[in-house]
Amino acid sequence: MQVTPVPVTKLIDEFSRLPGIGPKTASRLTFYLLRNPADRAVALAEALQELHQKVLFCSQCFNIAENDPCSVCSNEHRDQSILCVVEEPLDVLAIERTREYQGLYHVLHGAIAPTEGVGPEDLKIAELVGRVQSSETEVREIIVATNPNLEGEATAMYIARQFEGGSVKLTRLARGLPVGGDLEYADEITLSRALSGRSEI
């Protein structure tokens, strides 16, 4: 016999599919929405709907945006000759919070992880190479800001090999970041120091 109403069970199941949310948290979120006024649930539903209707990926940097090109790529005041390569859109937000970096970005959407079946062809690495080669403004430096873990290091080394023998300077964030940690969880001071103390690959 079904004790919990089907809509409640369905929402718990959907919340449980989200990363970092287990069955207990999913249940708490569902019953929180159930106890609160209906307009809260409606606002959440509308926000979720707009997520796929109004958010797109920038065709230049592959970051999330509302317009193409995004506000960073179309900003003439940013240094067009420096590209900061990151794994995820969340990493762009983390670096932007430091207010230290004034160049452009390139989002890979992941890192090389053979154990999970993720190879270079699954990332935006070919697009990075093409972008640097076809850029109207000469790219002088590429800052490889992948996470300081095995996957991030493998990705950084692969990117470095793509630009071997070229005129582009490749740098890596300084080791102010904890090994094994993710860029999105680093505090502003650590990220600022890592950016200012970056080293050549």
Could you characterize the architecture of this molecule?
The protein has 201 residues and is α/β, with parallel strands linked by helices. Strand 3 (79-86), helix 4 (89-98) and strand 4 form a beta-alpha-beta unit. The protein has helices at residues 6-16, 23-35, 38-54, 89-98, 125-134, 150-162, 188-196; strands spanning 56-57, 64-65, 79-86, 103-107, 141-144, 169-172, 199-200. The strands form 2 sheets. A 5-stranded mixed β-sheet has the order 4-3-5-6-7. A two-stranded antiparallel sheet has the order 1-2. The chain starts with 5 loop residues before the first helix and ends with a strand.
Write the layout of secondary structure elements.
Elements: H1 6-16, H2 23-35, H3 38-54, E1 56-57, E2 64-65, E3 79-86, H4 89-98, E4 103-107, H5 125-134, E5 141-144, H6 150-162, E6 169-172, H7 188-196, E7 199-200
Parallel strand pairs: 3-4, 3-5, 5-6
Antiparallel strand pairs: 1-2, 6-7
Helix pairs in contact: 1-2, 4-7
